[in-house]
Amino acid sequence: MRINRYLASAGYGSRRKCEGLIREGKVRINKALVSALSATVAEGDRVEVGGQIVKALPPQYYLLYKPRGVVCTLTDERGRVSIGDFFPPHTGRLFYVGRLDKESEGLILLTNDGTLAQKLAHPAHGVEKEYEVVLDQPFDPTLLQKLCRGFVITGGRAKAERAFMLGGNKIKIVLRQGIKRQIRLMFAKLGYNVKYLVRTRIGGLTVNNLKPGCWRKLAAKQLAMLGYLK
Question: Active-site residues: which are they?
Fold first, then answer.
């Protein structure tokens, strides 16, 4: 296995980031400094980064239902409950894809595959994410078209791919963007406050009876639903 892929599988970030560690002279195989990005790791080799022994884990993929009130970080220095608290230590270092703010809930993808995490987070990949929103007052259906045409909010120009009425103050909205607090800011600009927000779908992955605080492992078939296959 190439050294950059080995380090990525151990949770050191994308392959490009791992190549940066090699260029910085922080990587050794069997105590020999690695200088070539094409270097490979064989079974039984001792790999070190900054003097620390690296143990690569097989690729792991999880779909978590983040509960409301949980912060979207793997550890929290202020002691708040975070998404990392729902996973046992043996899962190793994970990366999350597509954050949700503390007051929102729903699906988050986590993986130790830094390359996948980087790819899915990049705007060019454009994975669809679907949300159900409850507003503080009945929504004017004529504004659905404005959501889809788009307008400027803090963070850039925001637009929905699709938006549907679910009745009264309930809306379903589909995004391909990932601007921070995008849905809340879009509705605020239209004069509404979001009271409840849940992400119900990422690509072809849905809640499918997953309860808040629970997760399930994903296989290659499910990764294909994201437009990505190992």
Answer: 101
